[in-house]
């Protein structure tokens, strides 16, 4: 079993890491070290068991990663109870780390989510087909100053079931430089990534044989995405518009269609979807537009 720690510091982090290791688990430091979701993960049991431990409500990428999988992060008390019992226990409601709204208010988990969690034994993630972003096509865009924004948000979106493209705004517009990874045609959970996102999970996966040969698997058209998630820099908007409208496109796609841009939102929109475990309607999405 794999674990991510968030919101812990110093001695507490060391103690938890030792407890996990002694119990046969393994601590992972960053999202980039995690295995990519498999297109064959048709059930909760077939997905990797990766749990997030947090000492308090957080709004970190690791916290969001857990929510994307349909799992509330767990308090260290749950780990201690499991070690004392000598087995993996279903967490009680009091061992779940609460949600935190932007203003600092504590929010409850939706009751339907808690029922689903109990049905899954409390530690098994949702199958990809049941995740809230399943089937969505999302582009993640950041800048060279965004740090791990692009790879981390891409991981969170993929874990929530989305098909993801990613790029850094400093790269010249041209989605045609991106390539399809092996299996991208087989499932909505497959990933297409750009060379600019080489640090993201899955970037080391081999392209399909056709892509390796420079054939039609290379994405030569503007990707048809439902949503763009960008960092908070408003200067990215011009780059996104140019990248979506000026890149070479398939002949069957009209300039009118290319000029119809998908909504561009900040990561807070993604967080709200994950906290509520639903896709927010257009009316609620307005406040998160960049």
Summarize the structure in words.
The model is unreliable at 173-220 and 247-259 (pLDDT under 50). By secondary structure, this protein is of the alpha/beta class. It contains 10 helices and 11 strands. The protein has 2 domains: 2-127, Rossmann fold, CATH 3.40.50; 137-288, no CATH class. The longest helix has 13 residues, at 10-22. Helix content is 29%, strand content 13%.
Quick structural summary:
With 290 residues, this protein is α/β, with parallel strands linked by helices. 29% of the residues lie in helices and 13% in strands. The protein folds into two domains: 2-127, 3-Layer(aba) Sandwich (Rossmann fold), CATH 3.40.50.10190; 137-288, no CATH class.
Radius of gyration: 20 Å
Beta-strand percent range: 5-15%
State the helicity in percent bands: 25-40%
The number of distinct structural domains comes to 2
What's the end-to-end separation, in Å?
A: 38 Å
Shape category: globular
The number of distinct helices, counting runs of at least 4 residues, comes to 10
Largest sheet: 4 strands, parallel
Class inferred from helices and paired strands: alpha/beta
Q: Give the low-confidence spans.
A: 173-220, 247-259
Q: Return the average pLDDT rounded to an integer.
A: 77
For the biggest β-sheet, the strand order reads 7-6-10-11
- Reading the helices and strands in chain order gives EHEEHHEEHEHEEEHEHHEHH
Secondary structure: number of strands: 11
């Amino acid at each position: 079993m794999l674990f991510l720690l968030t919101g812990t510091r110093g001695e507490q982090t060391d103690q938890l890491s030792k407890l996990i290791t002694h119990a046969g688990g393994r601590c992972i430091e960053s999202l980039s070290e995690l295995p990519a979701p498999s297109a064959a993960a048709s059930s909760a049991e077939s997905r990797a068991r990766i749990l997030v431990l947090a000492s308090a409500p957080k709004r970190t990428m690791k916290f969001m990663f857990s929510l994307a999988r349909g799992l509330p992060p767990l308090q260290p008390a749950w780990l201690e109870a499991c070690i004392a019992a000598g087995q993996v226990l279903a967490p009680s409601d009091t061992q779940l780390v609460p949600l935190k709204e932007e203003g600092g208010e504590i929010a409850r988990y939706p009751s339907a989510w808690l029922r689903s969690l109990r049905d899954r034994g409390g530690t098994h993630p949702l199958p990809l087909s049941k995740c809230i972003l399943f089937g969505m096509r999302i582009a993640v865009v950041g800048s060279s100053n965004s740090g791990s924004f692009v790879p981390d948000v891409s991981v969170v979106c993929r874990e929530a079931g989305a098909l993801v493209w990613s790029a850094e705004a400093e790269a010249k517009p041209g989605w045609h430089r991106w390539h399809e990874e092996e299996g991208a045609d087989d499932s909505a959970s497959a990933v297409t990534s750009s060379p600019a996102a080489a640090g993201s999970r899955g970037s080391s996966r081999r392209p399909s044989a056709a892509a390796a040969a420079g054939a039609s698997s290379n994405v030569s058209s503007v990707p048809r995405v439902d949503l763009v998630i960008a960092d908070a820099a408003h200067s990215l908007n011009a780059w996104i518009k140019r990248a979506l409208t000026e890149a070479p496109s398939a002949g069957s796609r009209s300039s009118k269609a290319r000029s119809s841009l998908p909504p561009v939102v900040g990561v807070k929109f993604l967080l709200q979807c994950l906290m509520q475990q639903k896709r927010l309607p257009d009316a609620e999405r307005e406040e998160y537009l960049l």
